[in-house]
Design goal:
CATH architecture: Roll
Strand content: 25-35%
Shape: globular
């Protein structure tokens, strides 16, 4: 991506981030749920969001309040190794990126996708605890 495109993306993300910040909405979410969330235009190797809403699917790992949660981003590419957890859903594989645990506001949540099975969620939590 060229420097001009990167700058354009940062400007677009900043405008969207302001709209998200001032929106007065309360999102009801729970642990184990996968949501699309506006993660933004990030720096370096952080997982970016895509499309006009800078969105990416995330797993709600821990709910701290109605407003704050720990999230783990997902990628549609299968990635192996200790920093990934590979899942399968409806004949598709995807990876949860364990190394990119992030505290986010619930205002970033856009729409719920599905609930992760309890056994997979337990395994993911154990892997994250190992890193901490």
């Amino acid at each position: 991506m060229s420097q001009d495109n990167k700058l354009t993306n940062f400007v677009a993300w900043t405008k969207l981030k302001i709209r998200i910040h001032v929106a007065n909405k309360l999102i009801y979410f729970k642990e184990r749920k996968i949501w699309w969330a506006s993660l933004g235009c990030n720096i370096g190797h952080e997982e970016d969001g895509k499309n006009i809403m800078f969105e990416r699917p995330i797993l709600v790992l821990k709910k701290f309040s109605h407003h704050l949660l720990w999230s783990l981003p997902l990628t549609s590419h299968r990635k192996n190794g200790q920093y990934y957890y590979v899942c399968r859903h409806e004949d598709k594989e995807y990876s949860i990126i364990l190394s990119q645990l992030r505290l986010i506001s619930s205002r970033r949540l856009l729409r719920k996708v599905r609930t992760l099975p309890k056994n997979e969620f337990r395994e993911i939590k154990e892997k994250v605890k190992y890193f901490l």
